[in-house]
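User: Hey, quick favor. My workstation is busy. Could you predict this chain's structure for me?
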Amino acid sequence: MQIIPSVIPNVIKLSAGRLARRFERQCRRPREVQERLLADILEHNAETAYGQRYGFDRIRSLDDYRRAVPVVDYDALEPYIERMVRGEKLQLTADDPVFFATTSGTTGRPKFIPVTREARRAKAAMGRLWLYHLVRDHPDVFDGGVLSVVSPEEEGRTPAGIPYGSESGHLYRNIPALVRRRYAVPYDIFTIHDYESKYYTILRLCLSEDITMIATANSSTVLLLGQKMVEYQERLLQDLHEGTLDAGLEVPPEIREMLHGRLAPEPERARELAQRLERNGGRLTPALCWPNLRMIGCWKGGSAGLYLQQFPEYFPPDVPIRDWGYLASEVRGSVPLSDEGAGGVLAIGVNVFEFVREAEIDREDRTFLAVEELAAGERYFVFLTTASGLYRYDINDVVEVVGFYERTPVIQFVQKGHGVVSLTGEKLYEAQVVEAVQKAREAMSIEFQFIAASVQWDRQPRYIFLAEFGEKPPHDTLVKLGAAIEKHLRAINHEYKGKRESLRLGHPILKVVAPGEEDRYRRAKIEEGRRDSQFKLIRLNGDFEFQKEFKVVEEVPVSRTG
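Assistant: No problem, here it is.
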């Protein structure tokens, strides 16, 4: 049966309306909601090994909880999780895990984050809440197709037979059927292993669609779709004209067979796009292919801003962008209710939150704060308690309170806590690097593919900036760019300025890398096992070996005075 697109927003609003009203009521009394949720989690899990060790049955308040239960990281919970992986019961949760979400983007063994049925239900509820507010503001987003990119749901099974992998893949496969019918890309496409073949196939399918919404958390993935469309444009148009899928792609035969019925010759569409391409500088972009694009859903906070700066090159400049919210393998932590900024309302009904002011994080007498004790404009480290067995879990994230909804904080992600480097006590943060680069770019009107800071140990330790350009600027321009970044870093971080002036930090070096290096690096990391839907190039990397990953074609020292 054909679904009329306008029906979808009405069904979403009807089905999630009660949830939205409940969320609004909760936001008026955050302390009460958090205390009740904590009591429910502790009571339900009191008979677990962890609950018995720390006396969950004797805890009566958040203050009791802080006194009885320690702050932990993954390493502290790993022995319990390993037993859960083997199938042992009553370790962290009374309910057996139904899934393990594996983290990505880190070195060493992946972390296995247990997910119970209740935790999955809570995350899904926050997803419906996001959709509710989206269609309230943009009722036409489902008029056409939805383009999303996710990682495969199941990467394997534990010795106990419990699946592990990406929750984004699970969400994609289990979204309500009414919405799922608007998907432009079948789930099986995301299981294609070859990096280039997967993105080519995604774009080939979507070239035939009137895409009205792009929804994938990582802004770098959204940008990559635009870049790959330009790179593949001639082959894509030929395949569109002939109704084929490039025979040279590494696409499994069963997927080719599945797509056979979906791909038909579209010579008129191919000619139309070729004409648009001719009139618009010879580049086939999403803005040309999908003029009815109504919305992009992706992350906007933290270093994502550097990717957003490049969106107008590929996407309509006036298309709204809504943040996906504070979202990780461990937590669905916030729900953005509008397109403004990158902030989302804390998900106080499904997670218990504690916070420590950023400036106090290394102090022995640091103060843990509840949600109602936060202040607008302040930055905090986050500690989580969830239905999946994370208790006072240090997720190592820094968030900023950007306002309040009713009495509940609106937060936006700033950076990972480890996104800080201190060679001589300067404590340079990834967010500061992003801000300095953005200001330098705006002042000089210069375009680049990517730019990232790292470290180099010479006679004096120094920072280096690896930069890739579509077309390498003249040497004088590179000198000015390096000086501009240095100038803004000094203004943003006074300790950095002091260490530079005292010569404890050597002058930075701007290193220009060969064209295509970011894409090659990304592809290499994905081939090593990282997820393409979650891959993010960290903008401040403290590994002295990091720069060796890139081919450098020019080095430009930055003057000491900036």
